[in-house]
Design goal:
It is built from 4 helices and 7 strands. It has 158 residues and is α/β, with parallel strands linked by helices. The protein has a 7-stranded mixed β-sheet with strand order 3-2-1-4-5-7-6, with helices on both faces. The longest helix has 23 residues, at 3-25.
């Protein structure tokens, strides 16, 4: 598969997975968190499909497209662990989390996701959903939409 086809498959899976998860959380109380802002495409999509939810964003740097900049009060800039601890301490609970942190080195990305999993668990509303590009630990795996290959995106219930 070409890199272009792989990227298109990943983006379609991400969109389909987020749309599915947004429907699943329905009346569940809680905010949303986008773990890894990047250029802001996912954050922009979350704003569109969940307009009535507060969307927190965590990233090391703010380098997104100007139209996708989160409000200052909702952007937690810094390393993931202290920013997740800040969310824990704030008492905000998350109904839907999107995990998209990565260094681009698979082994390092998997280890980071496993290391951060307990902190993610602490911010989640019981029954909340996590859509992740990396395997997480300590959560109940779910079968996501049938349109998404099992190895492309992972879905978990807190």
């Amino acid at each position: 598969m070409s890199r272009l086809d792989s990227m298109l498959r990943r983006l379609a899976a991400q969109r389909d997975g987020l749309n599915w998860a947004a429907e699943q959380i329905g009346p569940l109380p809680g905010d949303v968190v986008d773990l890894g802002l990047g250029n802001g495409r996912t954050y922009d999509h979350l704003r569109e499909i969940l307009p009535d939810r507060r969307i927190w964003v965590v990233d090391r740097v703010l380098q997104c497209h100007p139209s996708c900049t989160p409000p200052e009060a909702d952007f937690l800039q810094g390393e993931a662990e202290p920013m997740l601890r800040k969310l824990v301490e704030s008492g905000h609970k998350i109904a839907l989390a999107h995990y998209d942190f990565g260094f681009g080195i698979k082994e390092k990305d998997v280890a980071e996701a496993a290391r951060l999993s307990p902190l993610i668990a602490q911010i989640m509303t019981p029954g909340g959903l996590i859509v992740s590009g990396q395997p997480l630990v300590g959560f109940d795996p779910l079968q996501g939409p049938e349109t998404i290959a099992p190895d492309r995106y992972m879905f978990y219930r807190a």
